[in-house]
Design brief:
Blueprint (H helix, E strand, L loop, with lengths): L11 E5 L4 E8 L2 E9 L3 H14 L5 E8 L5 E5 L9 H9 L18 E8 L6 H18 L3 E14 L1 H13 L3 E8 L2 E9 L2 H14 L7 E11 L5
Antiparallel strand pairs: 1-7, 2-3, 3-6, 4-5, 4-6, 7-9, 7-10, 8-9
Helix pairs in contact: 2-3
């Protein structure tokens, strides 16, 4: 079961868009390096990418990997997979952990990259690159893949349900969306409709949302808390 979002210290982080893949390929002294990055929410998902690429590219000598997981980035793993210790997995992990992905609200802290699994497949070209050359190659492969990645910001949001009549649900949904609020959808039943909303986990934003709902429903609409979750939104460009 996923951990409670409200237990996280972070309120936002950046990751790859769901269903996307970031790829980069380098050739250095006839050694070929293929970097593949995917979103991963668990260690099992992160390790699955390693095994998939090991099967797909079984002729390669090394399948080095690194991943960082969780809103607080409290799970970090790396593997050199036969390369000299510290020359592959750790540089890959540092490329993920140190990546700048934009600024948080108010232009303050840089938002961290997480829930990303990276694998770099290497075909040996016959020439030794040395420890420094390997570190640069593996780090650059991940960094170049990130340069082309489709990123999203994941924000911790409070979930609410808003009951409405069948007649008013469509209008309320459209007007809420027009004000910038995230409406997750509307369900219709025999007794009426119910809108699902995801609101920023911020006291001022929550108060403003309650005011908007009251104005749109002539004071009859009541937001009912329904837990919390992480919701994707477009990522800000790097600072």
């Amino acid at each position: 079961m996923d951990p409670d979002p409200l237990l996280s210290r972070a309120t936002a982080y950046t990751t790859l868009a769901a269903g996307t893949e970031a790829v980069a390929e380098l050739e250095i002294k006839r050694s070929r390096f293929l970097a593949v990055l995917r979103r991963a929410g668990t260690e099992a998902e992160a390790r699955a990418l390693v095994e998939e690429l090991r099967r797909s590219f079984h002729d390669a000598r090394h399948h080095c990997s690194a991943f960082v997981l969780g809103p607080d980035r409290d799970v970090q793993r790396s593997s050199d997979d036969g390369e000299p210790a510290g020359t592959a997995g750790l540089p890959m992990l540092e490329a993920l952990v140190l990546r700048r992905t934009g600024t948080a609200a108010g232009g303050a802290d840089v938002t961290a990259l997480s829930d990303v699994s990276a694998v770099v497949v290497r075909w040996f070209g016959g020439t030794l690159l040395g420890a420094g050359g390997l570190v640069r190659a593996y780090s650059d492969a991940v960094s170049q893949a990130l340069d082309g990645a489709q990123l999203v910001r994941r924000r911790r949001q409070r979930l609410y349900r808003l009951p409405a009549s069948h007649a008013d649900a469509g209008r309320i949904e459209n007007e809420l969306r027009a004000t910038g609020l995230t409406v997750l959808g509307t369900s219709y039943g025999a007794a009426g409709a119910e809108l699902g909303l995801a609101l920023p986990d911020d006291d001022a934003a929550l108060a403003a949302a309650h005011s908007r709902v009251a104005a749109l429903t002539a004071g009859t609409g009541i937001l009912h808390p329904h837990g919390a979750d992480w919701v994707d939104s477009p990522a800000a460009p790097p600072a």
